[in-house]
């Protein structure tokens, strides 16, 4: 057997190495493929040779395995958020559209469309990058036109009006006097009524237009007239005056000559008039708690 001090030749064999053989005493070998490799050395001198085989002697580690989970789609107006889903932890995120800063993605900077998100991790044996696409959805185009819908002007004491004119269909209305997509009577004025719509991507947008509530005397009077009833009419004697909405504050009964023959202040919603009027036609003036004055006619038989 040759001694180390008098070795004259070296013959190396390196499994999967580059070079895979060498006659140098101290060769430099590069491994490009991850795995566990064996090494063989044959030394010789004038006395002979000796062979050493070291099985599974060199472990070659490859670059890190890096993954990035699928990314959810977002709306363009979503707040910037910290990216996640990259593994192993400790890497950095970048993107194609310069919408990532310090691992935070800004949908508005990316704009509507598809951006590529890169997750890069550096280990002891190299750097690996994983990629996923992220979809940024635009907001729906929303419009509302109360003029075309025929409801831009409504009367103060009109019945509740179902709101329409918003597009795309299926949204909701909100604003002063709005309840369950209807607008009821309210104080006269002009009000911005908003139409809000959310699309299939969960993105929401709004538009607004104005609705004017006007004091329409004719409609007001008709509404008040309908709230006051006198029965029976014609009456043979006693009759009842009733309000469906508010208390009756004052009642005056006047004959055809304009003479006031009765004045009462019931302060309730229903009053029985039991005075013995002579047969004829009488006018009844009712003042409710809101100071509305309603004129009615009663016939006494």
Structure report:
- The chain is mainly β and 301 residues long.
- It folds into 4 domains: 4-60, no CATH class; 67-137, Sandwich (Immunoglobulin-like), CATH 2.60.40.10; 143-214, Immunoglobulin-like, CATH 2.60.40; 221-300, Immunoglobulin-like (Sandwich).
- 5% of the residues lie in helices and 51% in strands.
- The protein contains 2 helices and 31 strands.
- The protein has a 4-stranded antiparallel β-sheet, with no helix packed on it.
- It starts with 8 loop residues before the first strand and ends with a strand.
- 17% of the residues are buried.
- The mean pLDDT is 90.
Question: Can you count the helices?
Answer: 2
Q: Could you say what the CATH topology of the largest domain is called?
A: Immunoglobulin-like
State the secondary-structure class: mainly beta
Name the helicity range: under 10%
CATH architecture of the largest domain: Sandwich
The first-to-last residue Cα distance is 148 Å
- Tell me, briefly, the overall form: rod-shaped
What do the pLDDT scores average to? 90
Say how many strands there are.
31
Strand residues, percent: over 45%
The unreliable regions are none
CATH class of the largest domain: Mainly Beta
Total separate domains:
4
């Amino acid at each position: 057997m040759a001694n180390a001090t008098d070795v004259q030749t070296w013959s190396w064999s390196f499994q999967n190495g580059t070079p895979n053989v060498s006659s140098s005493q101290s060769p430099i070998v590069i491994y490009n493929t991850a795995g566990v490799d064996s090494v063989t050395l044959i030394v010789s001198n004038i006395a002979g040779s000796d062979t050493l085989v070291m099985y599974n002697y060199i472990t070659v580690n490859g670059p890190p395995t890096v993954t990035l989970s699928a990314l959810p789609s977002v709306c363009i107006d979503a707040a910037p958020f910290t990216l996640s889903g990259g593994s192993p932890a400790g890497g950095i995120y970048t993107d194609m559209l310069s919408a990532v800063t310090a691992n935070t993605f800004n949908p508005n900077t990316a704009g509507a469309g598809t951006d590529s998100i890169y997750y890069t991790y550096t280990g002891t044996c190299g750097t690996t990058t994983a990629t996923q696409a992220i979809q940024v959805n635009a907001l729906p185009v929303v419009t509302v036109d109360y003029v075309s819908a025929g409801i831009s002007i409504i009367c103060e004491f009109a019945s509740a009006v179902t709101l329409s004119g918003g597009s795309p269909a299926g949204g909701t209305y909100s604003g002063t006097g709005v309840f369950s997509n209807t607008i009821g009577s309210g104080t006269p004025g002009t009000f911005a009524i908003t139409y809000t719509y959310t699309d299939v991507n969960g993105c929401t947008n709004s538009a607004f237009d104005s609705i004017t509530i006007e004091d329409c005397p004719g409609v007001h009077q008709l509404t008040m007239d309908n709230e006051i009833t006198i029965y029976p009419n014609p009456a043979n004697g006693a009759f009842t005056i009733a309000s469906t909405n508010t208390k009756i504050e004052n009642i005056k009964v006047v004959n055809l000559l304009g003479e006031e023959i009765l004045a009462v202040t019931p302060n309730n919603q229903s009053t029985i008039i039991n005075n013995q009027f002579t047969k004829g036609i009488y006018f009844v003036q009712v003042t409710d708690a809101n100071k509305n004055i309603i004129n009615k006619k009663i016939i006494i038989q």
